[in-house]
Amino acid sequence: MDTSGLTGLDQRIAGCRACPRLVAWREEVARTKRAAFADWTYWGRPVPGFGPADARLLIVGLAPAAHGGNRTGRMFTGDRSGDVLYRALYDVGLASRPTAVSADDGLRLHGVRITSPVHCAPPANKPTPRERDTCRPWLVRELRLLRPTLRSVLVLGAFGWQAALPAFAAAGWTVPRPRPVFGHGARYTLAAEDGGDRSGGEDLGLFGCFHVSQRNTFTGRLTPEMLREVLTTAARTAGLPAGNRTTGPSGAG
């Protein structure tokens, strides 16, 4: 097993069994399945991050969906939330294709990595505070590994925002006090601490976006235009040439 870098981290995450409730739930879902996916062999394990090791933009969600990432083994892949997110990433030139259906579908991200503060699918999409805190060291390690190239983070939803702030602090950025307040379009700068192990890390642009949940997208609380706008802003802050595919750059990195 590769124990160095993001590859090693992803392997370790996929083998984690630290939270009994989440282990039982994800494995039960993988056994019983949903009728529409009866012929699938579910992943049924923690879902690691997805995207290149030199990403300049990190997207932070909440947790894998029971019949999405928990089924396919890849973040936001195989569910309607992922349909919305990857369509927007493709539209602004940050993904090679507009859909994500399986881990081997050939999808590539350009300068972007996607992760979550909780790596197992939780019952009712609601991790407990203890489960969130138990999973945090994985996010801290991921941030530290990405730090040499990472320039901005887009957090989807208030849960991810609150879970990620302590991870940013542990990974070498200063979180202002009072703490940054979540909101769609929220924007802050986290200063890189002058520590001996920063590995070239720089200040980090922090952006908020409503989560791409069905509740938000079906009601119009989050529209495709809103999502594309905040994605483009976060990507350009990171130095990625994002833009509408019909009028701007079609890819980066």
From TrEMBL:
The biological process GO terms on file are: base-excision repair
What CDD domains is this protein classified in? UDG-F5_TTUDGB_like (cd10031)
Tell me which InterPro entries the record gives.
UDG_Type-4/5, UdgB-like, Uracil-DNA_glycosylase-like, Uracil-DNA_glycosylase-like_sf
Q: Does the keyword Signal apply?
A: no
Q: Which GO terms describe its molecular function?
A: 4 iron, 4 sulfur cluster binding; DNA-deoxyinosine glycosylase activity; metal ion binding; uracil DNA N-glycosylase activity
Q: Which UniProt keywords apply?
A: 4Fe-4S, DNA damage, DNA repair, Hydrolase, Iron, Iron-sulfur, Metal-binding
Q: Name one Pfam family in it.
A: UDG
Domain of life per record: Bacteria
Q: Which Gene3D superfamilies match?
A: Uracil-DNA glycosylase-like domain
SUPFAM superfamilies reported for this sequence: Uracil-DNA glycosylase-like (SSF52141)
Residues in Uracil-DNA glycosylase-like domain copies: 48-231
Q: Which family does it belong to?
A: Belongs to the uracil-DNA glycosylase (UDG) superfamily. Type 5 (UDGb) family.
Write down what this protein is called.
Type-5 uracil-DNA glycosylase
Native source species:
Streptomyces griseoviridis
